[in-house]
Write a structure and sequence with these properties.
- By secondary structure, the chain is α+β, with helices and mostly antiparallel strands.
- It has one domain: 2-Layer Sandwich (Alpha-Beta Plaits), CATH 3.30.70.
- The strands form two sheets. A five-stranded antiparallel β-sheet has the order 1-7-4-6-5. A two-stranded antiparallel ribbon has the order 2-3.
- β2 and β3 form a beta hairpin.
């Protein structure tokens, strides 16, 4: 019998089970519903990396007001591939799995807070955490490589 492995990605409309749920004798890992953006390009959208998380939280609260708490605020993860993973939800609580499908306003608010652009939309998927595996995958957004001094 082959050893079961959870998929590295899942479609946006195919959320994983809650983290820890048993499936084929294994516990479901943490997944993040996220857009993938090239790091240098993404940082330019905000202008200053050290204040990035503060800016995201501020934009989140301005967009949603009191409807959602900061527990549902979007978050960024940096993958080992150098890309920024702009997280709208995790599979940590039942409400997180329902919101992206049943409450499109949450995704709209996350898009706004994270400054997601139209060219980023095709990358919105559930990504298995930790993101150490992303260096092995060719179909995600490629980080920009700085030109060498010899060129």
């Amino acid at each position: 019998m082959a050893h079961f492995k959870f998929p590295r990605t899942r479609a946006q409309d195919d959320p994983p089970a809650l983290r820890g749920t048993l499936y084929n004798g294994r516990k479901t890992p943490v997944y993040a519903l996220a857009w993938v953006c090239k790091r240098p390009e993404y940082i330019k959208r905000f202008g200053d990396f050290p204040t990035l998380e503060y800016d995201i939280e501020r934009r989140w609260s301005l967009h949603v007001g009191d409807k959602y708490g900061f527990g549902l605020a979007p978050y960024i993860e940096i993958g080992e591939d150098g890309n920024i993973y702009c997280v709208a939800a995790y599979n940590l609580r039942p409400m997180y799995l329902d919101l992206p499908v049943n409450d499109p306003e949450l995704l709209i608010a996350s898009r706004h807070a994270l400054k997601i652009q139209e060219k980023d939309e095709h990358t919105l998927k559930w990504y298995k955490l930790p993101l150490s595996w992303v260096c092995e995958v060719d179909n995600l957004a490629k980080p920009e490589v700085e030109a060498s001094a010899s060129e």
